[in-house]
Design brief:
Shape: globular
CATH topology: Diaminopimelate Epimerase, Chain A, domain 1
Largest sheet: 10 strands, mixed
Order of helices and strands: EEEEHEEEHEEE
Strand content: 35-45%
Number of domains: 1
Length: 171
């Protein structure tokens, strides 16, 4: 079974991400330096901040090293999620994520949405693509209504029942 979720419209203005520095919209091919290394990124907010860095090989990135350094970069006053992305073709993106406050994660739905938006803004992907994460794949579409829709697997995991509790009244 698959579930489709309306993730809302992406925020592309630097103040909405938020970022320090000059205001711009969209934030595409921005640069930052960390420990003498220059990174080119696209920034997107899906209600939380994301930077997307396109690379030739996501497996070659030392995510445990660069993730926290970029998450805490002074350019991002509320920190940021960090995604390294390899474009397989215009309909398939491979991503790895450093989630702010958590570290390396197997999946990030808002991140997958930010990745698709960033890839489309750069002309690297269609408005709809499959985003492959270590924990599974999601289909993401940046629709003509401006909203981003995410479709992914859903599994039945349990059943629950609410019981009404009886409380004694003291008089």
């Amino acid at each position: 079974m698959a579930v489709k979720v309306d993730m809302g419209p992406p925020q592309l203005h630097s103040t909405k991400i938020p970022m320090t520095g000059p205001e711009r919209e969209p934030v595409v091919d921005a640069e930052l330096e960390a420990e003498g290394h220059r990174f080119v990124f696209t920034a997107v907010s899906m209600g939380n901040p994301h930077i997307v860095i396109f690379v030739d090989d996501v497996e070659a990135v030392n995510l445990a090293y660069w993730g926290p350094r970029l998450e805490h970069h002074p350019l991002f006053p509320r920190r940021t999620n960090v995604h390294f992305v390899q474009v397989q073709d215009s309909s398939h993106l491979l991503m790895r994520t450093w989630e702010r406050g958590s570290g390396i994660t197997l999946a990030c739905g808002t991140g997958a949405c930010a990745v698709l938006v960033a890839a489309h803004l750069k002309g690297l992907a269609n408005r709809a693509a499959t985003v492959h994460l270590p924990g599974g794949s999601l289909h993401v579409e940046w629709a003509s209504d401006g909203h981003v829709y995410m479709t992914g697997p859903a599994n039945y995991i349990c059943e629950g029942r609410f019981l009404r509790s009886m409380t004694a009244t003291l008089t």
